[in-house]
Amino acid sequence: MRALVLEDYDKFVFRDIPIPKIANQDEVLIKVKAVSVCGSDVHGMSGATGRRLPPIIMGHEASGQIVQVGDGVKKFSIGDRVVFNSTLFCGHCDYCQHGMVNLCDERKVFGVSCEEYKIDGAYAEYIVVPERIVYSIPDRVSYEKAALIEPFSVGFHAVRVAELGLADTVLVYGSGTIGSFIIQSLKIKGAGKIIATDIDDDKLALAEEMGADYVINSKKTDAESEIKKIAPKGLDIVFDVVGKASVARQGLEMLKKGGRMVMVGLMDKEIAFPVQRITSWQLRIQGTYISSDEYPACIELISSGRVNLDPFIKHFVPLSEAPSWFNRLREAEKGLHKVIFNPEK
Predict the structure, then answer these.
(1) How many other C-beta atoms lie within 10 A of the C-beta of residue 151?
(2) How many Cβ atoms are within 10 Å of 323's Cβ, its own excluded?
(3) Nearest C-alpha neighbor of 67 from the set 32, 109, 18
(4) Three-state SS at 304
């Protein structure tokens, strides 16, 4: 089969490798029909994250069709259209037993190579996965849209752990793909005022299209003063999708008493917080990591048309052209919100 291999940092090679084989009875072989690019792959290709050690086949946001099943597979058959979780979880640890598969003691993410483990991903024609992480997709959901179920589930999970109250006033720092999916999830879950900030007008236009009530370019205006005009009593929830210390600190200071800060982004490794304010105002800082058991709900929301994925499926391109598209993503080309590869071309 043909696969996109990161053979060295910033060096992709599109070449032939053996088709992976089913090794366990509960596994299925999937012919990948669509795989979208995650921002972590764009950062990882240069070695910036330490989680894409070459050589590695990246890619964890994918959909496809089952072409072979192991003898112990019970829920799926050859020909089924499916999507699979980006995280390989064990299914039997305490976290998995309590529905927190994203916190599994043995979790591994497809397309990641680090000191602890290496597991090839979906920038290839085929991939083998266990049936416990596979989900059926309806015929009315295209493979391109199905490849976005994983990133949408990340935004949906973030809103779920935030424990959103009806009519809460919410700020979303960072209006890229995940920020946009958080905004859509907030609308679905009944948020009140939704404020989006970014330094890119193009992304802010997308945020407005996704349902943000207010958009603020923090590079052109004093975001804090503008937000205080919209929410003079403070914010109920702040989502930090950027992950920078300065952003997190500013967001924390704009929360009302009893407010929640949800940490989504992963840029700065350490952030200093004002402990006295957190304690005396009873603020909550909540981490969120990928998604847990939200896939079925996300598939239903996308299938029903309640989620707008159109801006993210405009660039469905051959996997063989991946190196040039990665460069365009790294350069933050205007209007290029998402790229989805077709491994069959």
Answers:
(1) 26
(2) 15
(3) 32
(4) coil
Task: Decide: 81 and 139 in contact? Cβ < 8 Å.
Answer: yes
Indicate the length of the chain as a whole number. Answer: 345
Residue 65: its H or E element? strand 61-69
For the record, the structure tokens of 330 come out as 């790294």
- pLDDT of 77 reads 97
**Structure-token pair, residue 101:** 């598969």
Instruction: Report pLDDT digits (tens) over 58-111.
Output: 999 999 999 999 999 999 999 999 999 999 999 999 999 999 999 999 999 999
* Cβ-based neighbour number of residue 31 at 10 Å: 16
Tens digit of each residue's pLDDT (9 = 90 or more) over 14-53: 999 999 999 999 999 999 999 999 989 998 888 888 899 9
The DSSP line for 101-124 is: GGG-TT-EETTEE-SS-EE--SSB
Query: What structural domains and CATH numbers belong to the chain?
Result: 2-148+309-342 (3.90.180.10), 155-287 (3.40.50.720)
Q: What is the pLDDT of residues 129-172, one digit of tens each?
A: 999 999 999 999 999 999 999 999 999 999 999 999 989 999 99
Does 266 have pLDDT greater than 80? no
What is the predicted pLDDT for the residue at 267?
A: 73
Give Cβ neighbours of residue 37 (< 8 Å, ≥ 6 apart): 59, 61, 325, 326, 329, 338, 339, 340, 341
Q: Which of helix, strand or coil describes residue 302?
A: helix
> What is the dihedral sign for C-alpha 286, 259, 217, 157?
positive
Quote the CA–CA distance of 102 and 111 in Å, as a whole number: 16
Distance CA 7, CA 55 (A): 4
Nearest to 29 by CA among 84, 67, 85, 60: 67
**How much is the pLDDT for 345?**
81
Residue in the structure block whose two tokens are 């829920």: 75
- The label of the residue with tokens 């205007």 reads 334
Which helix (H) or strand (E) segment holds residue 326: the answer is helix 322-330
Instruction: Tell me how many degrees the CA angle 22-135-96 measures, rounded to the nearest 5.
Output: 85
DSSP H or E segment with residue 7: strand 2-8
Global pTM value? 0.95
Are the C-beta atoms of residues 203 and 177 closer than 8 Å to each other?
Answer: no
Tokens 């299938």, residue?
303
